[in-house]
Amino acid sequence: MLRIGNASGFYGDRFAAFEEMLTGGPLDVLTGDYLAELTMLILARDRLKDTALGYARTFLRQAETCLALAAERRVRLVVNAGGLNPAGLAEAVGALAARQGLDLKVGHVLGDDLLDRAAEFGPRPGLLAANAYLGAAGIAACLRGGADVVVTGRVTDAALVAGPAMAHFGWTPDDHDALAGAVVAGHVLECGAQATGGNHSAFREHLGAQADPRPGFPLAEIHADGSCVVTKHPGTGGAVTVDTVTAQLLYETAGPRYAGPDVTARLDSVRLTQQGPDRVRIEGVRGEAPPPTLKVGLNRLAGWRNEVVFVLTGLDIEAKADLVRRQLAAGLAKPPADLRWTLARTDHADADTEETASALLRLTVRDADERAVGRALTAAAVELGLASYPGFHLTAPPGPGTPYGVFESAHLDAGSVPHTAVLPDGRRLAIAPPALTRALAPLPAPPLPAPPPDGPTRRAPLGLVAGARSGDKGGDANLGVWVRTEDAWRWLAHTLTEDVLRRLLPETAGLAVERHLLPNLRAVNFTLPGLLGDGVASQARFDPQAKALGEWLRSRHLDIPEALL
Length: 565
Known about the structure:
Blueprint: E1 2-6, H1 17-24, E2 29-32, H2 37-49, H3 57-73, E3 76-79, H4 86-99, E4 106-110, E5 127-132, H5 137-144, E6 149-151, H6 159-169, H7 176-189, H8 203-206, E7 218-222, E8 228-232, H9 242-250, E9 257-259, E10 264-266, E11 271-276, E12 279-283, E13 286-288, E14 293-313, H10 317-331, E15 338-344, E16 358-367, H11 375-382, E17 393-394, E18 402-413, E19 420-422, E20 428-430, E21 457-461, E22 467-473, E23 476-482, H12 486-495, H13 498-504, E24 514-518, E25 523-528, H14 549-555, E26 557-561
Parallel strand pairs: 1-2, 2-3, 3-6, 4-6
Antiparallel strand pairs: 1-7, 4-19, 5-14, 7-8, 8-12, 9-10, 10-13, 11-12, 14-16, 14-17, 14-18, 15-16, 19-20, 21-26, 22-23, 23-25, 24-25
Helix pairs in contact: 1-3, 3-4, 5-6, 6-7
């Protein structure tokens, strides 16, 4: 058995988690995931200011207190904190270990940075980062080469777990089922406390009554066949249940095929069993050969944006909003290229506080020219201060424009992307892509379960019978919904169709919504293409990463069988 824990799900996660995981119980490997689409843009802007940067500096500060702990407990560290400069971070970690008198060997993985091949991706003005999503084999090679610490750049999140498992069990690229099991384990662990009750629909059940309301971080006990048990250190907050693991399995995935550079994992084969308190067994995962191409994430600066939020209080909210729109249009000599108004009716009639009597009118602008979203806009808004609707004020003084980014993706033949493991002794090993690949093809939809029996229904929120979790993949949103019982599953599968989802979430009305059934998880998973515009960095909607999309859906009312309620 190999015990792999996680201590970071994003750049900015709980700083103390590395120490907590190292001291809370036995581990063989501790991972840290720092990279997301927006993080790569942040690191790219860091690199513009200083070419020695481009990595997640948080890990280096965590290492100051944790390297000695890891060495004492013989726990290997595997992190993607290298970002755009894994060699630089590996050198800094090695220097830190030497200053602390530790005999630690540091390896790193290179090859994902393709910015010097920008021309291959077509015209992309403002391109700051182009990174291929590498697989687990480079990490495995570093560990087999004796590394105590492995630093990577942009690998898939699940590779941080699959790489150590590959090295430990001696799996080959053809061990598809075992690799797929490790990829699923890695996907469950990658977002840290989301697997132990964090951000969960049943938060009152998992976190509400505990003395420590902060969930602990997860770990997986992985076996040679790729099966695992997800758990956490004793005495830590939160919970590990079939529900919490299901939620994370559905997060930022699409159909039943979960493709990666090492293997395509079949999510429709996953079986979950509650083995005991805070122990969920994952087994039965089937794997297929990976696709022949690698995804490449492209981050570029697309222009400048600004935002002004007007507060509208009391009566005549719609008329006040209309007046501001017309006044600002008359005051702008040249409107920005993209100008959007959003009125959030947060006001209540006969409210007992001024704030709850107020609505928010948000103006968001974008333009390639910084001047168009800067003083020309803010001055026009401020000049209305004594000449507009009664009660005129803003949530904050308008500021200068800020740059915004766009995330796009491309695909390259896996054989054209270098993948290099730099071992602790300086040797460089070229990692060959898998010899056997398989292009992704749609799977036939699984049969619907038998329809639920007729009976009385009641109008009620969907969230009374279903959990949900949502997130982003570039400009697309993902939304997974699951239930706990077979009777509820029969109702959900027949009721929550694409058309019903569009009706419940009107923002999705014009989208080519895709629905996938996952009967083993009693879940439906939706992909909502284009809901998020050009991705989180473009700030195209109120919730730019669709984090709360699932909670919005759970609050919507349906006719639900009383037997389920």
